[in-house]
Design goal:
Layout: H1 21-28, E1 78-79, E2 92-93, E3 131-138, H2 157-160, E4 168-175, E5 182-189, H3 209-218, E6 220-228, E7 235-237, E8 247-249, E9 255-259, E10 278-280, E11 285-290, E12 296-300, H4 318-322, E13 361-364, E14 374-376, E15 388-391, E16 396-402, E17 410-418, H5 425-431, E18 438-445, E19 466-476, E20 479-480, H6 487-492, H7 494-500, E21 509-514, E22 521-525, E23 552-558, E24 567-575, E25 585-586, E26 600-605, E27 611-615, E28 625-629, E29 640-644, E30 650-656, E31 663-668, E32 694-700
Parallel strand pairs: 9-14
Antiparallel strand pairs: 1-2, 3-32, 4-5, 5-6, 6-7, 6-8, 9-10, 11-12, 12-13, 13-14, 15-16, 16-17, 17-18, 18-19, 19-20, 19-24, 21-22, 22-23, 23-24, 24-25, 26-27, 27-28, 28-29, 30-31, 31-32
The structure holds MU-OXO-diiron and calcium ion (2 copies).
Region (Disordered): 94-113, 526-546
Biased composition (Polar residues): 526-536
Protein name: Phosphatase
Length: 708
């Protein structure tokens, strides 16, 4: 990194998808330039299953899980009393009868009534006619009481620790009252880009220790109290000085409790934490999810790039570090952020177990600003994109999780305990323990048309990319189901465990969402430039294209409509790319009428059951954006583009309130093109000077529901 060329002018050097080289460097530590970390030779496709695929209709699931938190109307989830007192945080109250009730015949069937916006490369935020948008909060805005105004030339770790962090990713907006007037915005700050943060920046080696700590403080999460503007769908932070819920979580100050079977294991003990139970900080928090009990989950993703010294780690650890993308052959591998200069725990030569304390799903309770956030070992350790929880029919909670790396896997966690309904403190205390014990599975997919998959993306003669699949049990509590590995090992080195049982190697599994109405599971598979190249794994029916540039969406229907089931049916409703490209598929819809989409990343369901998809690295020449489609009925596959983000940015979040009247997205890494600096920005969004990541809210001018 220290000898990284500093190129001008701002032409942008596209790499994977159309992501700029600068994004690859800062966000993922150039993950795609490194060898694929999964070198296992697991024969991952089971026997080809044929003719057995049952095409199910809409599976009605989630009766228990119909409890949701929401803004406004009869479905308003709220806080009892909503007393804004940090000492006595209110209890989130969730309605039993949500609008997302199962069994409604029109759920997810479309009627999207906006005119799609065209692909574009404008350095602005574009929404359809009839909609407006506004920045809610941006990098450097005050969050905690006493936070100073942002001073570009006088940044300090103390100030940044009280201000909104950098590169917002996941966004949630949780209700604080029954009237839908106040809420809590909860946001991940995935990573920093020092080129675009510090005037005069040259190299990581030239950064001051204080600047390194600014970067640490700009990571993590923010909780920000927001209020509705008038009666519109717009929201803004409440005025300074009365924000007891506001909170900053950082990479270097916030303590996390490890929970679950692997907490305290030998793999997690360090000199600073000899009991292996408390971790300082969270890293590279990407996507996330809101639980039915009103907490927020956040995935620690490309944590490997923060560590150096892997070459001097104990020999027996090296294969385990390497499987997670940590360089074990050079003392200070390229891509390091040099954080070890400010905190030696990032040097694995001195603290070899420190890396094992990242790569978890973390849970934060935004309603209790004094609560200690937790890292749940029962949910396994990998490059977690995020986690979304669904309450199964029998009350167990199920979390679906992607490991976002080329040729890595899709996972599922099923809790031991059942979700407790109601809004009592007893119920909440119980539900806060649900992710601490359960069973962890990894997915294996069979194919119906294996002999027809040639890497071209041609639809098989049976009319679908589809098949059966199974969830392979890895571990439950202290019992391992993987030969030769203890339960602790399976949880801390989950990738290695999944290699052993024949999990299916996927095209970068990112966000996974469950339709609250149908219980069907949707997986965004972003892309995989290495699929079928060289000695890399060949295309298969789930990942059907060689050198897959545009990605696909998978749909899983669990057997009997039971999200705890161990078998399922799958298909690909959308194979992304230019609709004129014969390798694309839009659920059989007339492709001349769909918006082109590339590199799906985050997924969301709105209150009518339609699926929203945001993109990361659109490889079709347009800025990234947000799209929507019906996912049931004749409009399924009729994808429409709803918004685009400015130059160099990625569309993250997204989050729609339950009254469907406010849509939040995170504009991440605007202006992140190679050669850009603060002084010579590639984007001037949002304020016309230099690029700043920020959260945007979009609403309909006539006050109606977003999209339909
Ligand atoms: Fe941070 Fe997988 O995107
Ligand atoms: Ca098929
Ligand atoms: Ca992502």
């Amino acid at each position: 990194m220290s000898d990284r060329p500093r190129l001008l002018p701002l032409l942008g050097t596209t790499r994977h998808g159309s992501r700029d080289a600068m994004t690859c460097l800062y966000r993922c530590g150039n993950a795609c330039d490194h060898p694929v970390p999964n070198t296992s030779d697991n024969a991952y496709f089971g026997d080809v299953v044929n003719a057995e695929v049952t095409r199910r209709g809409v599976v009605r699931a989630g009766a228990v899980g119909a409890m949701v938190l929401g803004f406004g109307g009869a479905a308003a989830g709220a806080l009892a009393g909503a007393a804004p007192a940090a000492a006595a945080p209110a209890t989130p109250v969730a309605p039993e009868a949500a609008r997302r009730a199962p069994g409604r015949p029109d759920v997810g069937t479309g009627a999207l009534d906006f005119k799609p916006i065209p692909p574009n490369t404008l350095d602005t935020f574009v929404v359809p006619n009839g909609y407006d948008h506004a920045v809610v909060i941006r990098w450097g805005d005050p969050v905690l009481p006493g936070a100073p105004e942002f001073d570009l030339h006088g940044q300090s770790a103390a100030a940044q620790s009280k201000q909104f962090g950098y590169n917002n990713d996941f966004v949630a907006a949780l209700p604080l009252d029954r009237q839908g007037r106040r809420g809590l915005l909860v946001v991940n700050h995935e990573y920093t880009n020092e080129d675009l943060m510090f005037p005069g920046y040259t190299t990581p080696d030239a950064m001051t220790v204080e600047q390194l700590r600014v970067a640490m403080a700009a990571h993590g999460m923010s909780v920000v109290e927001i209020e509705r503007v008038g009666g519109t769908g717009q929201w803004r932070p409440v005025e300074r000085g009365r924000r007891p819920y506001n909170r900053r979580v950082t990479a270097h100050t916030t303590k996390f409790e490890l929970t679950g079977p692997a907490a305290g294991s030998a793999w997690l003990r360090t000199a600073a934490d000899p009991r292996g139970r408390v971790v300082v900080g969270t890293l590279n928090n990407c996507a996330g999810g809101v639980t039915p009990w009103g907490t927020v989950l956040s995935g620690e993703e490309n944590f490997n790039q923060y560590f150096v010294g892997g070459d001097a780690a104990p020999a027996e650890l090296k294969p385990r570090l390497a499987r997670y993308g940590i360089n074990t052959t050079a003392r200070y591998p390229g891509g390091s952020r040099k954080w070890e200069r400010a905190d030696e725990r990032f040097d694995l030569a001195k603290h070899p177990n420190e890396a094992h304390r990242f790569g978890w799903i973390v849970e934060i309770d935004p309603y209790d600003p004094d609560s200690r956030p937790r890292k749940h070992t029962a949910m396994g350790r990998f490059k977690h994109e995020g986690a979304n929880v669904h309450v199964a029919r029998d009350g167990h909670v199920v979390a679906y999780m992607g490991d976002d790396e080329r040729f890595d896997y899709l996972y599922k966690f099923v809790s031991d305990k059942k979700f407790m309904k109601g809004n009592s403190w007893i119920a909440r205390r119980h539900n806060l323990t649900l992710l601490e014990s359960g069973t962890l599975y990894v997915a294996q997919f069979d194919q119906t048309s294996a002999d027809e998959i040639d890497g071209s993306g041609k639809l098989p003669s049976d009319g679908a990319f589809d098949g059966r699949g199974r969830w392979i049990k890895l571990v439950r509590g202290n019992r391992s189901y993987v030969d030769g590995m203890t339960a602790d090992e399976v949880l801390v080195f989950t990738r290695l465990a999944a290699d052993k049982v024949g999990a299916t190697k996927m095209d970068r599994p990112e966000e996974v969402e469950v339709s609250p109405a149908t219980g069907k599971v949707y997986v965004a598979l972003t892309n995989n430039s290495s699929r079928g190249t060289g000695s890399n794994p060949k295309p298969d029916e789930m990942n059907p294209r060689t050198a897959n540039r545009h990605g696909q969406i998978a749909e899983l229907v669990e057997d009997r409509g039971d999200n705890t089931a161990e078998t399922f049916t799958w298909s690909l409703p959308i194979v992304c790319g230019d609709p004129a490209d014969p390798s694309t598929y839009y659920a059989g819809y007339d492709k001349s009428k769909v918006s082109p989409i590339s590199c799906p990343d985050n997924l969301m369901f709105d209150a009518t059951g339609n699926l929203w998809i945001s993109t990361d690295g659109n490889a079709l020449g347009s800025n990234d954006g947000l799209f929507a489609t019906a996912i049931e009925g004749p409009e399924k596959g009729h994808l429409k583009q709803f918004l685009t983000v400015p130059v160099g940015a990625e569309t993250c979040g997204p989050f729609v309130t339950d009254d469907n009247r406010s849509l939040f997205v995170a504009v991440q890494h605007p202006g992140e093109l190679t050669g850009a600096t603060v002084e010579n920005p590639a984007s001037t969004w949002p304020d016309g000077d230099y690029a700043k990541p920020g959260v945007v809210v979009t609403w309909r001018l006539d006050g109606g529901p977003i999209g339909s």
